Amino acid sequence: MTLNELTGQASQRFAKAFGRPPRWIVAAPGRVNLIGEHTDYNDGFVLPMAIEFYTVMATDLSPSPSSSVTVFDTVFNETAQIDVSKPVEKGDPKWSNYIRGVIAGFQRRGERIPALEVLLQSSVPLGGGLSSSAALEVSTATLLEVASGKKIDPVEKALLCQKAEHEFAGMPCGIMDQFISVMGRKDHLLLLDCRSRQTEFVPMSDPAVAVLIVNSNVKHELTGSEYPTRRRQCETAARILGVPSLRDATAAALEAAKGKMDPVVYRRARHVLGEIERTVHAAEGVRGSNWPTVGQLMYASHRSLRDDYEVSCAELDAVVEIAEAIGVKGGVYGCRMTGGGFGGCCVALVKADAVEAISKHITADYQKRIGKEATIFVSRPAAGATVIKS
After folding, report:
1. How far apart are CA 377 and CA 356, in angstroms?
2. Same domain, 238 and 330
3. Is 145 in contact with 236 (CB distance < 8 Å)?
4. Cα–Cα dist 75/53, whole Å
5. Which of 43, 177, 308, 317 is catalytic?
6. How far apart are CA 282 and CA 297, in angstroms?
7. Chain centroid to CA 266: how far?
């Protein structure tokens, strides 16, 4: 579904639910990370792109005296009532906490939140590692900007959304997801330095290549112990190495300190150092349209995530093995898991004229090996958060 189709449907559903057309419509995209996994909270580099899958909010001011933001979610078919007459706290339903956290962030900035009626619709797959949560947070922040008449700096906006996820969803994520959802640019990847927050747009407009996203359709819950545990292990490695974060470490220093570390902590650090280097090289490769090199870096990233960081799973490994077997001759430059891990999606860099054949091949082999159906779609680098109707 295109963004135009999605917003049209959201507008119609709003009218049906609330009896009038929406005053405002905003959208924010999900993302896929070409390379640079689990580097963001280690102050490293990431190379994501916004995808052509969006969370849309169609909204109007509440016509009756009210102190609530009422949100109807068409995915869960549930309504959340959020009282904005006082500081917003966590509440039910669970998905509303992403919205609650952003509203609380605006309240802390001294903004008065008006009573609103909101219809929420999304085409970003849930639990697929494509940042449906960031899309929801950034869509909410974009809506509050419009409704309050107070636009905020893009970096502040992304950080406000990140804080919402930390405090209200209990997910200690890095800054990548919110930054790309806010700042994405059509036909560009975003090379983000997660320490300085400097951004560089890397053009990717070559029509001969496409980004294929393969959803393993294995759901994952990152609010479990795995993600925070990885983060603590990285902090432990940095402490042993005597550096503020793993961004400041070198491969030589890590090898010298290997004997002082638990083997698992050592492997976690080895992944991060290698992944930071791979990400910078991949950005150079994209700039030069050197697709075979970018592809090899993607495969190396997956091996490291599988073996050193241990966040892959049998289904993701199967997708990568199938893609590697197809090879460059069959149109696949590279493939890797993307997102936090333990399910979700793989991302592949492929020849555009081979998309259909590759998709059929992966679908058939994945079904044979795993007994599940993979969902496959193509996306160009998309635009970030946008106001569609104001």
Report:
1. 10
2. yes
3. no
4. 14
5. 177
6. 7
7. 27
Residue type, 29: P
pLDDT in tens, 47-79: 999 999 999 999 999 998 889 999 999 999 999
User: What is the predicted pLDDT for the residue at 221?
Assistant: 58
Residue 284's CATH number? 3.30.70.890
Instruction: Kindly state whether residues 240 and 107 are assigned to the same domain.
Output: no
3 state DSSP class of 324 = helix
100 and 246 both lie in a single domain: no
Residues 117 and 253 both lie in one domain: no
Q: What's the pLDDT tens digit per position in 362-383?
A: 999 999 999 999 999 999 899 9
Q: What Cα–Cα distance (Å) separates residue 292 from each residue in 283, 296, 353?
A: 13, 6, 16
Number of domains, the chain: 2
Q: Which residue from 278, 298, 304 is spatially nearest to 346, judged by alpha carbons?
A: 298
Same domain? For 169 and 298 the reply is no
CA atoms of 291 and 158, how far apart (whole Å): 31
| Residue that has been written with the tokens 């797959």 in this structure | 125
Please check the confidence at residue 260 and state whether its pLDDT lies above 70: yes
Paired tokens of 256: 């010298």
Q: What is the pLDDT of residues 304-357, one digit of tens each?
A: 999 999 999 999 999 999 999 999 999 999 999 998 888 889 999 999 999 999
**Inter-residue contact 57 to 73 (CB < 8 Å):** no
Check: CB of residue 223 under 8 Å from CB of residue 354. Answer: no
The residues facing 70 across adjacent strands are: 81, 117
Contact call for residues 11 and 58 (beta carbons, < 8 A): yes
- What burial class does residue 200 get, using C-beta atoms within 10 Å of its C-beta: 0-12 exposed, 13-18 middle, 19+ buried? middle
Q: Is 353 a catalytic residue?
A: no
Report the distance separating Cα 358 and Cα 348, nearest Å: 10
Range of the domain at 183: 3-202+382-389
Predicted pLDDT at 31:
95
* The amino acid at 363: T
**pLDDT-based confidence at residue 202 (cuts at 50, 70, 90):** very high
Contact 142, 106 (CB under 8 A): no
Instruction: Give strand ranges (E) for 105-249.
Output: 116-122, 188-193, 199-203, 209-215
